[in-house]
Amino acid sequence: MGWNLIRLYAVAVYIFMFAPVAVVLLLAFNSSQFGGFPIEGFSLQWFEKLYENEAIVRAFKTSFVLGIGTAILATTIGILASLALVRYRFPGKAWITTFLISPVLVPETVLAVGLLLFLRWLSMPRSFALLLIGHTIIALPFVVLVVQARLVGIRKDYEEAALSLGANPLQTFFQITLPLLMPAVFAGALFAFTISFDNITATIFWRPAGSETVPTQIFGMLRNSVSPEINALGFVMIVITVGVPLMAGGLARYFTRKQR
Amino acid sequence: MSPALVTITLLVVVPMSLILIYSFYINIDLGVDRPAFSFENWSELFTDNYYHVAIWKTFRLSVIVTVLAALLGYIPAYFIANTTYKHKWLLLLLLILPFWVSFIIRTLSWIHIMGNQGAINGVLLWLGVIDEPLQMMFNEFAVIVGFIHVFLPYMILNVYVSLEGVDRNLVPAARTLGCSPWQAFREVTLPLSLPGLAAGSLLVFVLTAGSYVTPLILGGPNDFLYGNLIYDAILSELNWPMGATLSFTLLVLLGLVVVLYSRIMGMNQLYKAFG
User: Fold this and answer.
1) Residues B135-152: tens digit of each pLDDT
2) Theoretical Cys-Cys bridge with B159: which of A130, A154, B77, B131, CB 3.0 to 4.6 Å?
3) Cα–Cα distances in angstroms (integers) from residue B97 to residues B75, B82, B89, in the given order
4) For the whole model, what pTM was predicted?
5) Domain containing residue B170
6) B24, B101, B149: best mutation site toward chain A, by most A Cβ within 10 Å?
7) Is B11 part of a structural domain of the chain?
8) Residues 36-75 of chain B whose Cβ lies under 8 A from any Cβ of chain A
9) Which residue of B14, B23, B25, B100 to mutate against A (max A Cβ within 10 Å)?
10) What was the pLDDT predicted at B8?
11) Between the CA atoms of A185, A186, A188 and A193, what dihedral angle is there, to the nearest 10 degrees?
12) Count of domains in chain B?
Protein backbone atom coordinates (compact mmCIF):
# COMPACT_ATOMS: atom_id res chain seq x y z
CA MET A 1 0.00 0.00 0.00
CA GLY A 2 2.65 2.52 1.11
CA TRP A 3 4.94 1.45 -1.71
CA ASN A 4 2.17 1.93 -4.29
CA LEU A 5 1.66 5.49 -3.10
CA ILE A 6 5.38 6.13 -3.40
CA ARG A 7 5.37 4.73 -6.90
CA LEU A 8 2.38 6.84 -7.88
CA TYR A 9 4.08 9.92 -6.45
CA ALA A 10 7.28 9.19 -8.37
CA VAL A 11 5.34 8.74 -11.60
CA ALA A 12 3.56 12.05 -10.97
CA VAL A 13 6.89 13.83 -10.51
CA TYR A 14 8.20 12.31 -13.73
CA ILE A 15 5.09 13.55 -15.52
CA PHE A 16 5.66 17.00 -14.02
CA MET A 17 9.18 16.96 -15.43
CA PHE A 18 8.31 15.82 -18.92
CA ALA A 19 4.75 16.88 -19.75
CA PRO A 20 5.58 20.55 -20.44
CA VAL A 21 8.43 19.58 -22.75
CA ALA A 22 6.19 17.06 -24.52
CA VAL A 23 3.67 19.84 -25.08
CA VAL A 24 6.28 21.98 -26.84
CA LEU A 25 7.23 19.02 -29.06
CA LEU A 26 3.58 18.44 -29.88
CA LEU A 27 2.71 22.08 -30.58
CA ALA A 28 5.60 22.38 -33.02
CA PHE A 29 3.39 20.47 -35.47
CA ASN A 30 0.25 22.49 -34.85
CA SER A 31 -1.04 24.26 -37.95
CA SER A 32 -2.65 27.06 -35.91
CA GLN A 33 -1.34 30.60 -36.32
CA PHE A 34 -0.94 30.82 -32.54
CA GLY A 35 1.66 29.05 -30.50
CA GLY A 36 -0.70 27.56 -27.92
CA PHE A 37 -3.73 25.29 -27.81
CA PRO A 38 -6.08 24.23 -29.36
CA ILE A 39 -4.47 21.96 -31.89
CA GLU A 40 -6.03 22.61 -35.29
CA GLY A 41 -4.19 20.19 -37.48
CA PHE A 42 -0.89 18.69 -38.44
CA SER A 43 1.56 20.88 -40.28
CA LEU A 44 5.25 21.15 -40.98
CA GLN A 45 5.00 24.79 -42.04
CA TRP A 46 6.71 26.15 -38.91
CA PHE A 47 9.83 24.17 -39.62
CA GLU A 48 9.82 25.61 -43.13
CA LYS A 49 9.43 29.10 -41.66
CA LEU A 50 12.39 28.41 -39.41
CA TYR A 51 14.54 27.54 -42.34
CA GLU A 52 13.47 30.69 -44.17
CA ASN A 53 14.14 32.89 -41.14
CA GLU A 54 17.63 34.23 -41.67
CA ALA A 55 18.11 35.43 -38.09
CA ILE A 56 17.37 31.95 -36.76
CA VAL A 57 19.63 30.21 -39.24
CA ARG A 58 22.41 32.63 -38.31
CA ALA A 59 21.82 32.00 -34.58
CA PHE A 60 22.05 28.27 -35.25
CA LYS A 61 25.35 28.63 -37.02
CA THR A 62 26.73 30.75 -34.19
CA SER A 63 25.56 28.27 -31.57
CA PHE A 64 27.04 25.34 -33.47
CA VAL A 65 30.46 26.85 -34.00
CA LEU A 66 30.49 28.04 -30.40
CA GLY A 67 29.43 24.65 -29.06
CA ILE A 68 32.02 22.76 -31.07
CA GLY A 69 34.75 25.24 -30.16
CA THR A 70 33.83 24.98 -26.49
CA ALA A 71 33.84 21.19 -26.67
CA ILE A 72 37.33 21.12 -28.21
CA LEU A 73 38.82 23.68 -25.82
CA ALA A 74 37.20 22.40 -22.63
CA THR A 75 38.03 18.78 -23.43
CA THR A 76 41.67 19.47 -24.24
CA ILE A 77 42.23 21.52 -21.10
CA GLY A 78 40.12 19.10 -19.08
CA ILE A 79 42.21 16.07 -20.10
CA LEU A 80 45.46 17.81 -19.17
CA ALA A 81 44.06 18.94 -15.83
CA SER A 82 42.76 15.48 -15.00
CA LEU A 83 46.09 13.88 -15.90
CA ALA A 84 47.88 16.27 -13.58
CA LEU A 85 45.40 15.73 -10.77
CA VAL A 86 45.18 11.96 -10.97
CA ARG A 87 48.65 10.86 -12.11
CA TYR A 88 50.93 13.28 -10.32
CA ARG A 89 51.41 14.14 -6.71
CA PHE A 90 52.06 17.68 -5.70
CA PRO A 91 51.42 19.79 -2.63
CA GLY A 92 48.02 21.44 -2.28
CA LYS A 93 46.29 19.01 -4.63
CA ALA A 94 43.06 18.97 -2.63
CA TRP A 95 42.93 22.75 -2.78
CA ILE A 96 43.43 22.77 -6.49
CA THR A 97 40.64 20.24 -7.03
CA THR A 98 38.25 22.44 -5.07
CA PHE A 99 39.49 25.42 -6.98
CA LEU A 100 39.02 23.77 -10.37
CA ILE A 101 35.38 23.05 -9.75
CA SER A 102 34.77 26.39 -8.05
CA PRO A 103 33.23 27.97 -11.15
CA VAL A 104 30.31 25.62 -10.55
CA LEU A 105 29.63 27.39 -7.29
CA VAL A 106 30.12 30.92 -8.59
CA PRO A 107 26.74 32.18 -9.80
CA GLU A 108 26.82 32.46 -13.57
CA THR A 109 25.61 36.03 -13.41
CA VAL A 110 28.63 36.99 -11.30
CA LEU A 111 31.01 35.05 -13.53
CA ALA A 112 29.52 36.84 -16.53
CA VAL A 113 29.99 40.29 -15.01
CA GLY A 114 33.51 39.45 -13.85
CA LEU A 115 34.72 38.29 -17.23
CA LEU A 116 33.07 41.27 -18.88
CA LEU A 117 34.86 43.67 -16.52
CA PHE A 118 38.12 41.88 -17.26
CA LEU A 119 37.63 42.58 -20.94
CA ARG A 120 36.68 46.15 -20.27
CA TRP A 121 39.80 46.55 -18.19
CA LEU A 122 41.80 45.28 -21.16
CA SER A 123 39.81 47.73 -23.34
CA MET A 124 38.58 44.92 -25.56
CA PRO A 125 35.05 44.86 -27.00
CA ARG A 126 32.71 41.92 -26.60
CA SER A 127 33.51 39.32 -29.18
CA PHE A 128 32.96 35.76 -30.25
CA ALA A 129 36.21 34.90 -28.48
CA LEU A 130 34.74 36.13 -25.20
CA LEU A 131 31.78 33.78 -25.66
CA LEU A 132 34.13 30.92 -26.48
CA ILE A 133 36.38 31.52 -23.46
CA GLY A 134 33.41 32.09 -21.17
CA HIS A 135 31.61 28.94 -22.22
CA THR A 136 34.84 26.98 -21.80
CA ILE A 137 35.15 28.17 -18.19
CA ILE A 138 31.58 27.14 -17.50
CA ALA A 139 31.99 23.71 -19.09
CA LEU A 140 35.49 22.91 -17.79
CA PRO A 141 34.56 21.72 -14.28
CA PHE A 142 32.10 19.19 -15.69
CA VAL A 143 34.61 17.87 -18.21
CA VAL A 144 37.28 17.56 -15.50
CA LEU A 145 34.93 15.60 -13.26
CA VAL A 146 33.90 13.20 -16.03
CA VAL A 147 37.45 12.58 -17.28
CA GLN A 148 38.89 12.34 -13.78
CA ALA A 149 36.37 9.71 -12.75
CA ARG A 150 37.38 7.53 -15.69
CA LEU A 151 41.10 8.14 -15.29
CA VAL A 152 41.00 6.95 -11.69
CA GLY A 153 39.66 3.65 -13.00
CA ILE A 154 42.47 3.13 -15.55
CA ARG A 155 45.26 1.15 -13.94
CA LYS A 156 48.64 2.79 -13.95
CA ASP A 157 50.23 -0.59 -14.80
CA TYR A 158 49.34 -0.24 -18.49
CA GLU A 159 51.16 3.04 -18.75
CA GLU A 160 54.12 1.72 -16.79
CA ALA A 161 54.25 -1.37 -19.00
CA ALA A 162 54.36 0.81 -22.13
CA LEU A 163 57.07 2.98 -20.63
CA SER A 164 59.17 -0.02 -19.64
CA LEU A 165 58.81 -1.39 -23.17
CA GLY A 166 60.48 1.72 -24.51
CA ALA A 167 57.63 4.08 -25.38
CA ASN A 168 58.24 7.68 -24.52
CA PRO A 169 55.68 9.51 -22.32
CA LEU A 170 54.03 11.15 -25.31
CA GLN A 171 53.64 7.81 -27.14
CA THR A 172 52.34 6.25 -23.96
CA PHE A 173 49.72 8.96 -23.67
CA PHE A 174 48.54 8.75 -27.26
CA GLN A 175 48.65 4.96 -27.61
CA ILE A 176 47.63 3.78 -24.15
CA THR A 177 46.05 6.41 -21.95
CA LEU A 178 44.04 8.34 -24.50
CA PRO A 179 42.37 5.32 -26.16
CA LEU A 180 41.39 3.98 -22.73
CA LEU A 181 40.13 7.42 -21.82
CA MET A 182 38.14 7.86 -25.03
CA PRO A 183 34.63 7.18 -23.65
CA ALA A 184 35.12 9.86 -21.01
CA VAL A 185 36.63 12.27 -23.52
CA PHE A 186 33.65 11.76 -25.77
CA ALA A 187 31.19 12.16 -22.91
CA GLY A 188 33.00 15.27 -21.70
CA ALA A 189 32.98 16.81 -25.16
CA LEU A 190 29.27 16.15 -25.59
CA PHE A 191 28.66 17.58 -22.14
CA ALA A 192 30.59 20.72 -23.02
CA PHE A 193 28.76 21.09 -26.32
CA THR A 194 25.36 20.82 -24.64
CA ILE A 195 26.31 23.25 -21.88
CA SER A 196 27.45 25.80 -24.44
CA PHE A 197 24.55 25.22 -26.82
CA ASP A 198 22.06 25.71 -24.00
CA ASN A 199 23.63 28.58 -22.08
CA ILE A 200 21.64 31.77 -21.81
CA THR A 201 22.37 33.34 -18.40
CA ALA A 202 25.95 34.30 -19.17
CA THR A 203 25.53 34.51 -22.95
CA ILE A 204 23.16 37.48 -22.67
CA PHE A 205 25.96 39.39 -20.98
CA TRP A 206 28.74 38.25 -23.28
CA ARG A 207 27.31 38.27 -26.79
CA PRO A 208 28.64 40.94 -29.10
CA ALA A 209 26.11 43.52 -30.28
CA GLY A 210 23.84 42.09 -32.97
CA SER A 211 25.03 38.54 -32.46
CA GLU A 212 22.61 35.91 -31.20
CA THR A 213 22.85 32.28 -30.18
CA VAL A 214 19.75 30.08 -30.39
CA PRO A 215 18.72 30.57 -26.73
CA THR A 216 19.15 34.36 -26.82
CA GLN A 217 17.29 34.43 -30.13
CA ILE A 218 14.37 32.58 -28.51
CA PHE A 219 14.58 34.92 -25.54
CA GLY A 220 14.31 37.90 -27.87
CA MET A 221 11.36 36.36 -29.71
CA LEU A 222 9.38 35.81 -26.52
CA ARG A 223 6.94 38.61 -25.96
CA ASN A 224 4.53 37.18 -23.37
CA SER A 225 3.26 34.67 -25.88
CA VAL A 226 4.97 31.80 -27.59
CA SER A 227 4.93 31.87 -31.37
CA PRO A 228 4.61 28.59 -33.29
CA GLU A 229 8.09 29.20 -34.66
CA ILE A 230 9.50 29.05 -31.14
CA ASN A 231 7.86 25.65 -30.68
CA ALA A 232 9.45 24.39 -33.86
CA LEU A 233 12.79 25.84 -32.78
CA GLY A 234 12.38 24.11 -29.43
CA PHE A 235 11.74 20.85 -31.22
CA VAL A 236 14.93 21.17 -33.25
CA MET A 237 16.98 22.12 -30.19
CA ILE A 238 15.70 19.18 -28.17
CA VAL A 239 16.39 16.79 -31.03
CA ILE A 240 19.98 18.06 -31.14
CA THR A 241 20.78 18.19 -27.42
CA VAL A 242 18.94 15.01 -26.47
CA GLY A 243 19.08 13.02 -29.68
CA VAL A 244 22.81 13.33 -30.31
CA PRO A 245 24.01 12.13 -26.87
CA LEU A 246 21.42 9.34 -26.82
CA MET A 247 22.45 8.19 -30.26
CA ALA A 248 26.13 8.38 -29.35
CA GLY A 249 25.50 6.38 -26.17
CA GLY A 250 23.48 3.82 -28.09
CA LEU A 251 26.12 3.48 -30.79
CA ALA A 252 28.86 3.10 -28.21
CA ARG A 253 26.93 0.29 -26.56
CA TYR A 254 26.27 -1.37 -29.88
CA PHE A 255 29.94 -1.34 -30.86
CA THR A 256 31.26 -2.54 -27.50
CA ARG A 257 28.80 -5.41 -27.67
CA LYS A 258 29.90 -6.23 -31.19
CA GLN A 259 33.55 -6.33 -30.18
CA ARG A 260 32.95 -8.99 -27.56
CA MET B 1 51.09 24.45 -12.68
CA SER B 2 48.55 22.76 -14.85
CA PRO B 3 47.07 24.67 -17.76
CA ALA B 4 43.59 24.36 -16.28
CA LEU B 5 44.78 26.01 -13.11
CA VAL B 6 46.25 28.89 -15.07
CA THR B 7 43.06 29.20 -17.08
CA ILE B 8 40.83 29.30 -14.04
CA THR B 9 43.08 31.71 -12.15
CA LEU B 10 43.26 34.05 -15.06
CA LEU B 11 39.62 33.83 -15.95
CA VAL B 12 37.93 33.50 -12.57
CA VAL B 13 40.11 34.91 -9.81
CA VAL B 14 41.29 37.96 -11.74
CA PRO B 15 37.77 38.93 -12.84
CA MET B 16 36.44 38.50 -9.30
CA SER B 17 39.14 40.84 -7.98
CA LEU B 18 38.29 43.26 -10.76
CA ILE B 19 34.66 43.21 -9.67
CA LEU B 20 35.73 44.33 -6.22
CA ILE B 21 38.00 47.07 -7.59
CA TYR B 22 35.31 48.28 -9.98
CA SER B 23 32.77 48.56 -7.18
CA PHE B 24 34.73 51.57 -5.88
CA TYR B 25 34.69 53.37 -9.21
CA ILE B 26 32.36 56.28 -9.91
CA ASN B 27 29.73 56.11 -12.62
CA ILE B 28 29.57 59.28 -14.68
CA ASP B 29 27.30 58.58 -17.59
CA LEU B 30 25.95 55.65 -19.60
CA GLY B 31 28.87 53.28 -19.83
CA VAL B 32 31.36 55.88 -18.68
CA ASP B 33 33.07 55.58 -15.33
CA ARG B 34 36.09 56.97 -13.55
CA PRO B 35 38.62 55.04 -11.47
CA ALA B 36 38.33 56.13 -7.87
CA PHE B 37 38.24 54.86 -4.34
CA SER B 38 34.73 55.90 -3.49
CA PHE B 39 32.19 54.23 -1.26
CA GLU B 40 29.32 55.80 -3.18
CA ASN B 41 28.00 52.53 -4.64
CA TRP B 42 28.41 50.66 -1.41
CA SER B 43 26.60 53.31 0.61
CA GLU B 44 23.81 53.28 -1.96
CA LEU B 45 23.55 49.52 -1.56
CA PHE B 46 23.50 49.76 2.22
CA THR B 47 21.03 52.64 2.48
CA ASP B 48 18.60 52.22 -0.42
CA ASN B 49 15.71 50.05 0.59
CA TYR B 50 15.15 48.95 -3.00
CA TYR B 51 18.20 46.69 -2.79
CA HIS B 52 17.26 45.29 0.60
CA VAL B 53 13.83 44.36 -0.69
CA ALA B 54 15.43 42.58 -3.65
CA ILE B 55 17.77 40.63 -1.35
CA TRP B 56 14.91 39.65 0.94
CA LYS B 57 12.70 38.66 -2.02
CA THR B 58 15.48 36.55 -3.49
CA PHE B 59 16.20 34.85 -0.17
CA ARG B 60 12.52 34.14 0.43
CA LEU B 61 11.91 32.77 -3.06
CA SER B 62 15.05 30.63 -2.97
CA VAL B 63 13.98 29.12 0.36
CA ILE B 64 10.51 28.37 -0.99
CA VAL B 65 11.91 26.75 -4.14
CA THR B 66 14.46 24.73 -2.15
CA VAL B 67 11.94 23.42 0.38
CA LEU B 68 9.40 22.53 -2.30
CA ALA B 69 12.08 20.84 -4.41
CA ALA B 70 13.15 18.79 -1.37
CA LEU B 71 9.56 17.75 -0.64
CA LEU B 72 8.87 16.93 -4.28
CA GLY B 73 12.20 15.28 -4.93
CA TYR B 74 12.79 13.05 -1.94
CA ILE B 75 10.11 10.46 -2.66
CA PRO B 76 11.05 9.84 -6.31
CA ALA B 77 14.70 9.48 -5.24
CA TYR B 78 13.63 6.98 -2.58
CA PHE B 79 11.60 5.14 -5.18
CA ILE B 80 14.49 4.87 -7.64
CA ALA B 81 16.89 3.74 -4.91
CA ASN B 82 14.60 1.00 -3.64
CA THR B 83 12.73 -0.18 -6.69
CA THR B 84 13.15 -3.72 -7.95
CA TYR B 85 12.12 -2.55 -11.42
CA LYS B 86 14.27 -4.26 -14.05
CA HIS B 87 15.00 -1.13 -16.06
CA LYS B 88 16.20 1.11 -13.28
CA TRP B 89 18.76 2.61 -15.66
CA LEU B 90 15.85 4.03 -17.63
CA LEU B 91 14.57 5.88 -14.58
CA LEU B 92 18.04 7.30 -14.01
CA LEU B 93 18.45 8.23 -17.66
CA LEU B 94 15.14 10.06 -17.49
CA LEU B 95 16.57 12.05 -14.58
CA ILE B 96 19.63 13.08 -16.58
CA LEU B 97 17.62 13.82 -19.71
CA PRO B 98 16.18 17.16 -18.51
CA PHE B 99 19.75 18.50 -18.20
CA TRP B 100 20.05 18.11 -21.94
CA VAL B 101 16.78 19.81 -22.76
CA SER B 102 17.31 23.49 -23.29
CA PHE B 103 16.72 25.53 -20.17
CA ILE B 104 14.83 28.26 -22.00
CA ILE B 105 12.54 25.75 -23.71
CA ARG B 106 11.78 24.04 -20.40
CA THR B 107 11.02 27.42 -18.86
CA LEU B 108 8.81 28.79 -21.61
CA SER B 109 6.96 25.47 -21.86
CA TRP B 110 5.04 26.52 -18.75
CA ILE B 111 3.34 29.23 -20.80
CA HIS B 112 1.77 26.35 -22.75
CA ILE B 113 0.60 24.74 -19.52
CA MET B 114 -0.55 27.66 -17.40
CA GLY B 115 -1.06 30.49 -19.89
CA ASN B 116 -4.39 31.80 -21.17
CA GLN B 117 -4.18 29.47 -24.15
CA GLY B 118 -2.48 26.81 -22.05
CA ALA B 119 -3.44 23.23 -21.44
CA ILE B 120 -4.99 23.73 -17.99
CA ASN B 121 -7.22 26.60 -19.08
CA GLY B 122 -8.08 24.74 -22.27
CA VAL B 123 -9.29 21.68 -20.39
CA LEU B 124 -11.19 23.68 -17.77
CA LEU B 125 -12.90 25.84 -20.40
CA TRP B 126 -13.80 22.79 -22.43
CA LEU B 127 -15.26 21.09 -19.37
CA GLY B 128 -17.24 24.25 -18.63
CA VAL B 129 -15.75 24.60 -15.13
CA ILE B 130 -14.74 28.18 -15.89
CA ASP B 131 -15.97 30.77 -18.39
CA GLU B 132 -12.81 32.81 -18.63
CA PRO B 133 -9.20 31.67 -18.53
CA LEU B 134 -7.63 31.64 -15.08
CA GLN B 135 -4.71 34.00 -14.69
CA MET B 136 -1.92 31.68 -13.62
CA MET B 137 0.99 33.18 -15.51
CA PHE B 138 3.36 36.07 -15.00
CA ASN B 139 3.28 36.01 -11.23
CA GLU B 140 5.43 34.64 -8.45
CA PHE B 141 3.72 31.27 -8.54
CA ALA B 142 4.71 30.73 -12.17
CA VAL B 143 8.30 31.71 -11.35
CA ILE B 144 8.40 29.19 -8.49
CA VAL B 145 7.00 26.43 -10.70
CA GLY B 146 9.52 27.26 -13.41
CA PHE B 147 12.43 27.11 -10.98
CA ILE B 148 11.33 23.83 -9.42
CA HIS B 149 10.84 22.30 -12.83
CA VAL B 150 14.35 23.18 -13.91
CA PHE B 151 16.21 22.41 -10.67
CA LEU B 152 14.32 19.35 -9.40
CA PRO B 153 16.62 16.82 -11.13
CA TYR B 154 19.59 18.19 -9.11
CA MET B 155 17.71 17.47 -5.92
CA ILE B 156 16.54 13.99 -6.93
CA LEU B 157 20.00 12.95 -8.14
CA ASN B 158 21.71 14.12 -4.95
CA VAL B 159 19.23 12.41 -2.67
CA TYR B 160 19.38 9.28 -4.81
CA VAL B 161 23.18 9.13 -4.58
CA SER B 162 23.11 9.20 -0.79
CA LEU B 163 20.20 6.76 -0.55
CA GLU B 164 22.10 4.32 -2.79
CA GLY B 165 24.97 4.48 -0.32
CA VAL B 166 22.87 3.38 2.63
CA ASP B 167 23.75 -0.14 3.77
CA ARG B 168 20.92 -2.46 2.68
CA ASN B 169 21.05 -4.42 5.94
CA LEU B 170 20.34 -1.50 8.23
CA VAL B 171 16.61 -1.20 7.70
CA PRO B 172 15.93 -4.95 8.09
CA ALA B 173 18.11 -4.85 11.21
CA ALA B 174 16.08 -1.99 12.64
CA ARG B 175 12.88 -3.88 11.78
CA THR B 176 14.03 -7.04 13.60
CA LEU B 177 14.76 -4.90 16.61
CA GLY B 178 11.13 -3.86 16.67
CA CYS B 179 10.95 -0.68 14.61
CA SER B 180 7.84 0.01 12.57
CA PRO B 181 8.56 0.70 8.87
CA TRP B 182 8.00 4.41 9.44
CA GLN B 183 10.24 4.40 12.52
CA ALA B 184 12.95 2.57 10.60
CA PHE B 185 12.76 5.20 7.88
CA ARG B 186 12.81 8.09 10.33
CA GLU B 187 15.59 6.74 12.53
CA VAL B 188 17.81 5.06 9.95
CA THR B 189 17.22 5.96 6.30
CA LEU B 190 16.36 9.63 6.67
CA PRO B 191 19.38 10.62 8.79
CA LEU B 192 21.70 8.67 6.48
CA SER B 193 20.30 10.44 3.43
CA LEU B 194 20.61 13.90 4.94
CA PRO B 195 23.99 14.63 3.28
CA GLY B 196 22.42 14.15 -0.15
CA LEU B 197 19.40 16.19 0.79
CA ALA B 198 21.67 18.97 2.04
CA ALA B 199 23.85 18.91 -1.09
CA GLY B 200 20.78 19.01 -3.33
CA SER B 201 19.31 21.84 -1.30
CA LEU B 202 22.53 23.83 -1.49
CA LEU B 203 22.65 23.48 -5.27
CA VAL B 204 19.00 24.41 -5.74
CA PHE B 205 19.31 27.36 -3.37
CA VAL B 206 22.46 28.78 -4.96
CA LEU B 207 21.20 28.24 -8.51
CA THR B 208 17.86 29.90 -7.76
CA ALA B 209 19.37 32.84 -5.91
CA GLY B 210 21.72 33.58 -8.81
CA SER B 211 19.11 33.48 -11.58
CA TYR B 212 17.49 36.28 -13.48
CA VAL B 213 16.17 34.72 -16.70
CA THR B 214 13.26 32.73 -15.21
CA PRO B 215 11.55 35.80 -13.67
CA LEU B 216 11.94 37.63 -16.96
CA ILE B 217 10.14 34.86 -18.83
CA LEU B 218 7.55 33.66 -16.30
CA GLY B 219 7.22 36.53 -13.84
CA GLY B 220 5.36 39.82 -13.82
CA PRO B 221 6.95 43.27 -13.51
CA ASN B 222 7.27 42.89 -9.73
CA ASP B 223 8.78 39.43 -9.69
CA PHE B 224 12.38 40.45 -10.03
CA LEU B 225 15.21 38.75 -8.21
CA TYR B 226 18.54 40.16 -7.13
CA GLY B 227 20.09 38.90 -10.36
CA ASN B 228 17.69 41.10 -12.32
CA LEU B 229 19.18 44.17 -10.64
CA ILE B 230 22.60 43.14 -11.95
CA TYR B 231 21.12 42.58 -15.40
CA ASP B 232 19.50 46.03 -15.31
CA ALA B 233 22.60 47.79 -14.00
CA ILE B 234 24.96 46.28 -16.55
CA LEU B 235 22.83 45.83 -19.66
CA SER B 236 20.16 48.55 -19.40
CA GLU B 237 21.64 51.38 -17.35
CA LEU B 238 25.24 50.62 -18.33
CA ASN B 239 26.19 51.51 -14.77
CA TRP B 240 29.23 49.28 -14.46
CA PRO B 241 30.41 50.27 -10.98
CA MET B 242 26.97 49.62 -9.49
CA GLY B 243 26.73 46.38 -11.42
CA ALA B 244 30.08 45.36 -9.97
CA THR B 245 28.97 46.26 -6.43
CA LEU B 246 25.81 44.21 -6.81
CA SER B 247 27.68 41.24 -8.31
CA PHE B 248 30.28 41.22 -5.58
CA THR B 249 27.58 41.29 -2.93
CA LEU B 250 25.81 38.34 -4.55
CA LEU B 251 29.08 36.43 -4.65
CA VAL B 252 29.75 37.11 -0.96
CA LEU B 253 26.21 36.27 0.16
CA LEU B 254 26.10 33.00 -1.75
CA GLY B 255 29.70 32.29 -0.74
CA LEU B 256 28.58 32.57 2.88
CA VAL B 257 25.86 30.01 2.21
CA VAL B 258 28.42 27.63 0.71
CA VAL B 259 30.84 28.18 3.62
CA LEU B 260 28.05 27.59 6.13
CA TYR B 261 27.17 24.40 4.30
CA SER B 262 30.74 23.10 4.17
CA ARG B 263 31.19 23.87 7.90
CA ILE B 264 28.23 21.64 8.67
CA MET B 265 28.42 18.98 5.97
CA GLY B 266 31.93 19.07 4.50
CA MET B 267 32.47 19.23 0.75
CA ASN B 268 32.67 15.51 -0.01
CA GLN B 269 29.01 15.00 -0.75
CA LEU B 270 29.11 17.71 -3.40
CA TYR B 271 31.97 16.02 -5.25
CA LYS B 272 30.13 12.72 -5.10
CA ALA B 273 27.08 14.30 -6.67
CA PHE B 274 29.10 15.60 -9.61
CA GLY B 275 31.20 12.48 -10.11
Assistant:
1) 888 899 999 999 999 999
2) B77
3) 19, 21, 12
4) 0.89
5) 46-274
6) B101
7) no
8) 72-73, 75
9) B100
10) 60
11) 140
12) 1
